Amino acid sequence: MNTKFTKILATSIAAAALTATLAGCGKGSASSSNEGSGEIALWTHNAGNPEELAAVQKIVDSYNGSQDKVKIKIQAFPQESYNDSIVSAAAAGKLPCIVDIDGPNVPNWAWAGYLKPLELSTDLSTHLPSTVAEYDGKPYAVGYYDVALAMMARPSDLKAAGVRTATVEQPWTEEEFQDALTKLKALGKWEYPLDMGTAGTGEWLPYAYSPFLQSFGGDLINRDGFQSADGVLNGDKAVSWANWFRGLADQGFMAKKGGKDSTQDFLNNQSAILYTGSWAADKAKAALGDDLVVMPTVDLGEGPKIGGASWQWGVTSGCQNSEAAMDYLSYSLKPENVAAVAKATGTIPASNEAAALIPAFAEGGANRIFMDFSREYAVMRPETPAYPFIATEYGNAVQDILNGADPKSTLDKAVKAIDANIKSNGGYKK
Amino acid sequence: MATTPLPTRRPAPAHVRPAPASSSNGNKRNGSNDAGNNRSAVRRRRPGFRREQLSGWGMMAPAALLLLAFIFIPAALGFGLAFTNARLISPRPVEFVGADNFVRLFTDPTFYRALLNVAYFAVIVVPVQSGLALLMALLINKKFRGVNFFRTVYFLPVVTSMVVVSLLWLFMYRKEGLINEVLSAISFGLINGPDWLADPNTAMPAIIILSIWQAAGFHMIIWLAGLQSISGELYEAAQLDGTSRWQQFRFVTWPGLFHTRSLVLVTITIQALGLFDQISVMTQGGPMDSTTTIIYEAVQSGYRQQETSYASAISLVFFVLVLIVSAVQRHLTREKD
Amino acid sequence: MKNQLLLKNAGTMLVRLLFAVVAVFPILFMLVSSLKPDQQIFGDMSSLAAFLPVGNISLDNYAAVFDRVPAARFLMNSIGVSAVTVILGIFVNSLCAFALSRMQVRGKRIVFMAILATLIVPFQTLALPLVWWVNQLPYFELNGFSLEFSRGWLDTYQVQIIPFIANAFSIYLFHQYFESIPKELDEAARIDGAGWFKIYRKVVMPLSGPATATVAILTFLPAWNSYLWPLMVVQSEELRPVMIGIQYFFQLNVSWGEVMAYASLITVPVVVLFIAFQRSFINSIASSGVKG
User: How far is CA A160 from each of CA A188, A271, A284, C61, C188, rounded to the nearest angstrom?
Assistant: First the structure.
């Protein structure tokens, strides 16, 4: 028994020594930007996404090879928790030089003083407007790509139900959409003919559903000064949106909470119409081949709308070597680099020059339609530092409304919270 | 010292407990006398006193310092923040705002809903989970062929991380998921199960079932340790008296589990009040706030909405609430026995 | 009479089996699904096939997991972090419980109350201030032969270990257990001239196998499953623990087969460890508790 305990003690001493050793070699290098050695850290959201990560790595490698003053070092985080990781690093003052940020959050970051305005040698005017994030009239972040929301269906199903295929020239109207869903439901093939991804959470909710609100003529906030959501998010038009959206669930057209993976459900023939992003197109195409049509979203009055802006790059204000960081960003925005990332991710390349390098996005290509959606319909999520707060309030409101809460009072509640938040932050003025 | 013969292992607590109790009482009396006398008298009477103080504090120090550094200090920091307007990231200076955050909190209907949900969860989970755990422990207490197999299997859900478990059950709770298929099969198609997590009436029960499933094995282990410490002689004696199984449980097992009982009660209650992981993965507080909890609201405000000070205010209120609940529990369990 | 007993035993066994089925079926679903392609996982969902390795079975998902996540590195990190936390936790907490239980230390009552009070603070509410706080703490590293000081524990192994060593619940468990060990043993040892640490080391701890085993399991599980904390304080991929890896699979297109494979991969080691450990755990209870 005594020997047993001596063993335990010996192990703990060994463990203590081990901790010391771990501590010695266990200091990560994620945020260290050793100016002396010319190393610049770059954080990105695509851990677990080998294609995108490899594409970014390739750009970094070629940049590192092109000059010998600095070396860029990538640190990849998983996307789901990227924002949580980076926000706590920011709060602790441990940001790297170059960061990847979800577009709508850029104004919040710029306002908080974590980002420097970009000074690039690249001409951004030919880029898709939704890939450049501006705040206070200055560009703070730029992306290689954007994504677009669309409706996907099987032409065979539409034909069987006698429903017209929607096109960019002639999208479905509210009545047509209602009619299409009624007919599809009548076929009896699906419990819910429509899948809007209602199981989605977080940023998906405002990204996916605020465009419908905007198509009705409402919005998340009054964009004139960004001081209040009153009358915009809880006005008549917003209430009509809420009633319409909830009606889809009440009439049994879609589930209040769909499956965790709406694309997979669609491919398994659990739904007839799938509302999702361009990222699902390649997977759907591979599974369905010619029996797949990509359609614009519904025109609910003000024309079809989709959310603009995806992941974008910025330079932090604490960066000691921002010149080099800007130089890297300019380098990385060369058309061939942009094209490589867009190709790897199946997203819409940010510039026409880059699009020309990808057959699917070149004129007449199979995915060109997403580029059209992006140019024609994209609405930026409100470019205000209040956006992260607005997004969560709106997301909660959407879920409550779907589940039967009174639309007007739910929206009033959201407006009240948003206005209070803006006020308590001094209007988010500099 | 190694020559000192160590007595046989640990004797049954039933026989032992009076002894240490009396010896510690005796020492305590000494201690209070010491305080009254002058120092030289103390030293004369107990030569090891000073050394005992030094070694004692030395032995408590590592744990005490670590708890101070990693719980008390951050908790104090957090409570301080509750009275400011601090944000997670903001260029604005941090200002003292008094009770503003608390005023806001106590006028927020979501907060009351969260309180209600947590109470609902705790009221069901505490008795059901501890009961099932005790039943499981009783089932595998005695030695029989395959006992290790059952012990391991019952403990499996506990070793599976809550994040993984929540993902699995997310699958099973779907409208046409496994749970509903099973319900339909065993009722010959009579029960058409709901879309569990999408219905405000069934979402919390669904979370409750999953939580009990995941954590019961943990408390089974605590019960089991308690059961194992009850002397086998007591059972033998009871058997000689020709008692029934129920009587054995009532008069031998139940009283023998006195300490274990309060331990199980306290741990389940604290675990129930801090409900968070399942909610975060499965429902995000919905539908219609029917599963939101105090901790979930705190994390949601603190990170996603960046309102650090408001989150701290929620934490402070939560802390006070748990304190009250534990005090009441202590009081009740004390009175009974 | 004998028949009745047999019937009773069969009934008990049936209940045992019922509980076993309930306990195991989601885990079985996970293991089985990890062998199937996505399409089939969803297809099999509505039948018994969800629990059976039938159809298109392969280890493809596991191969894909290693392409996507540095799983081996994450496993090593988690094993290291959990093991060190457990070993230091046993030592630090039992030492503290020993002083609280067996020594007449002035002020120990207040210390014990304060320790127990920490039980009711859920970690999530501390996380944000704690991030800021650990980033203020001094840090030293051996660089060649010179000791270098810097500030901030973010992005290290120790930030995943040290805050979780001291634990009120572990102290409580040890304390309860120590209380049941007769104090005459200490006195006998003291008469023989043993110091307090020696009594702790040679008398009390050797008798506390079951408590040690329980504390080990209860410290190991949260260390292995920690998720929120490493998310906030670890930035380098080479230092991340296993739970963070799950997030790697939630890309725009989720591959559920891979999620299940990874989930199995990080669950199985714990189960194996428990099975290995359970034997000594149960044995030590059996030898010390039931006897006597």
Answer: 12, 14, 20, 37, 92
Q: What part of A 8-27 touches C (C-beta under 8 Å)?
A: 8-9, 11-12, 15-16, 18-19, 22-24, 26-27
Looking at the complex, report in whole angstroms how far the Cα of residue B114 sits from the nearest Cα belonging to chain C.
16
Letter for the amino acid at C7?
L
Q: What is the pLDDT of residues B235-259, one digit of tens each?
A: 888 888 888 888 888 888 888 888 7
CA-based nearest residue in chain A for residue B167 = A260
Q: What is the pLDDT of residues C136-181, one digit of tens each?
A: 888 766 666 666 677 778 888 989 999 999 999 899 889 988 888 8
Which residues of chain B lie closer than 8 angstroms to A112, CB-CB? 89-91
Q: How far apart are CA B176 and CA B159, in angstroms?
A: 28
Which has more pLDDT, A19 or A332? A332
Q: Which of residues 247-286 of C touch B (CB under 8 A)?
A: 259, 263, 266-267, 270-271, 274-275, 278-279, 282, 285-286
Q: Are the C-beta atoms of residues B208 and B215 closer than 8 Å to each other? A: no
| Most confident among A92-101, A366-375, C88-97 (mean pLDDT) | C88-97
- The reply to whether ipTM tops 0.90 is no
- d(Cα C227, Cα C225) in Å, to the nearest integer? 6
Q: Which of A8, A83, A201 to mutate to test the interface with C (most CBs of C within 10 A)?
A: A8
Structure confidence by residue, pLDDT tens digits, B218-234: 888 888 878 877 777 88
* Burial of B155: CB neighbours in 10 Å, binned 0-12, 13-18, 19+: buried
Residue B160 and residue C267: Cα distance in Å, rounded? 6
CA distance C129 to chain B (A): 5
- pLDDT, mean over chain A: 88
- The residue assigned the tokens 């120790």 is C158
Exposed, middle or buried: residue B170 (CB in 10 Å: 0-12, 13-18, 19+)?
Answer: buried
**Residues B156, C24 contacting (CB under 8 angstroms):** yes
Residue type, A74: I
β-strand A98-102 against A39-47: which pairing, if any? parallel
Closest CA relative to residue C24, chosen from C44, C49, C43, C51 = C51
pLDDT at site A15: 54
Of the candidates C129, C227, C271, which has its C-beta nearest B159's C-beta?
C271
Q: What is the signed CA dihedral for A3, A7, A10, A14, rounded to 10 degrees?
A: 170
A1·B6 Cβ contact <8 A: yes
Res A30 pLDDT > 90? no
> Which one, of B176, B220, B216, B208, lies nearest residue B194 by Cα?
B176
Task: State whether B9 and C168 contact (CB < 8 Å).
Answer: no
Q: How far apart are the first and last CA of chain C?
A: 32
Tokens read off for C23: 């306990």
Q: Which chain B residues are closer than 8 Å to A388 by Cβ?
A: 304-306
CA A111 to chain C, closest CA, distance in angstroms equals 21
For residue B88, name the pLDDT band (cuts at 50, 70, 90): confident
**C126 touches B74 (CB < 8 A):** yes
Where helices occur in chain C by DSSP H, the ranges are 2-33, 38-44, 60-68, 71-102, 108-117, 123-134, 158-161, 168-179, 184-191, 196-198, 209-225, 228-233, 242-247, 256-285
What pLDDT digit, counting tens, does each position of B11-70 carry?
Answer: 344 333 333 333 344 344 444 444 444 444 444 556 678 888 888 999 999 999 999 999
Residue A336: name the closest of A367, A351, A357 by CA. Answer: A357
| From A16-25, B5-14, B93-102, B174-183, the region with the lowest mean pLDDT | B5-14
Q: Which amino acid is at B195?
A: D
Q: What is the mean pLDDT of residues C269-289?
A: 65
Distance to chain C for B288, nearest Cα, Å:
23
